[in-house]
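Hey team,

Filing this mostly as a record. A colleague (T.K.) asked me to run one chain through the structure pipeline before their review meeting, and I want the input and output archived in the tracker in case anyone asks later how it was produced. No errors, nothing strange. Just documentation.

Input sequence:
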Amino acid sequence: MGAGMDDISVLMLFVTADHFLNQSGRLGFVITQTIFKSAGGGKGFRKLRIDEKRFLKVERVSDFTKCQPFEGAANRTSVVSIQIANKPNPFPVDYRVFTPKGGGGHSASDLSVTEAAGFFSIASLEAFPMDAEPGASWITLPPGMHKIFLKIHGDSGYRARIGAHSGGAAGVFWIEVLEKRSAGLLVRNLHDAGRNKFPQITKLVEPDFVRPLLRGKDVDRWTAFSRHSILIPYDDENNGKAVSESRLKQQYHKTFEYFRTFEDRLIDRPHYRQHFAPSSQPYWSMYNVGNYTFATHRVVWREQSAIFKCCVVPDSDGAPFVADAKLIVVECRSAEEAYFLAGCLNSSPARFLIESYAIEIQVSTHVLSHVRVPEYAGSEIQKDIAKKSRLCHTAAKKDKNDEVATLEAEIDELVAAVWGLSKDELKAVQRTVSEMERRGSSTANDDTEGE
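Output structure:
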């Protein structure tokens, strides 16, 4: 079945269908919803092929990810109904999303079938492959919206990257600045940040490598606010390499002593041993750090969010902000380009596309491989989008929500022209996004790194 069959439930489904289903039979199977939309593990399943002559036909998918049907289990549950067929699966597939009335996250496990029927609101959607590649991820859309999706879908000229990754040592690199002194900054590590806990220490360090930290929870649509700092011994121009041990020890001795406190734990990181130890890089090296990490103009969005949110990284009076691994980062060539990109991505058409395929725990770098944002060339319409995006950032920072809503509507009209959407198509997109985001759950926890 190939490398795509890396979920035991997928293997069980294929084995069961192969051995027990005849041409007129039907199989109902409880399975993880991620196999329909994830880029990796579900690819083999989505080919829906048992052998050269037999295929799986998906009659319906019932999506219960908003319902938590199994008490105490935070999984993404779905039920798929399949048959054996002698030709490839036809699309669209009937895809139904079940949401508990009165809000998400409630269990109906103690209800009878009759009671449960009135417990949910049900959205009837259509599922299609993202593209023509065999095993492509599925998108889910209201009926009649696929043609609009195709107008927006496509690769952009932008490259997105995951933010700075400590490899399980957020409790070392993430710090709180307690006091500014003539001899340096008095800092305390956020020892219990992330999955791994570290001893808490308070030490003086040089200010050179202390930068404001942006975590996933610090970013919203149009705004970002740093609550803590990160001690990251990299120059702004670093070509992916941390400051050497000899240089840190000689020129930044206090910072060197800070990291030496955690030397054994930092060296023991699998992340460090795999990526940095073979080339004798210093033990404070971090993954996903390069010149782009400190670029002047950047756009970021949350890697985990039920509702897509992005913004331009704020200007800094001192050291540049550093985005952590729960944020996706795009380097831009100018402020205007950054505001243009953020304006396009925060628009209703872009969110319509993103939320039709993305799993809210996996809103990663792939976004710009699917949203066809044209490269910024300074055209009048691009300048208008950038201008209104900048005004949105300013208004959102001041909590002027009505002004933001008006500007967002104007941006929607501009990006609709970029993607060739009619007024009626734009209205349909806006209605769909409103319904998608109404069904969306609260944002996933961004307190720890994605390790």
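Quick notes for T.K.: The longest helix spans residues 380-397. Residues 347 and 409 are 8 Å apart (CA to CA).
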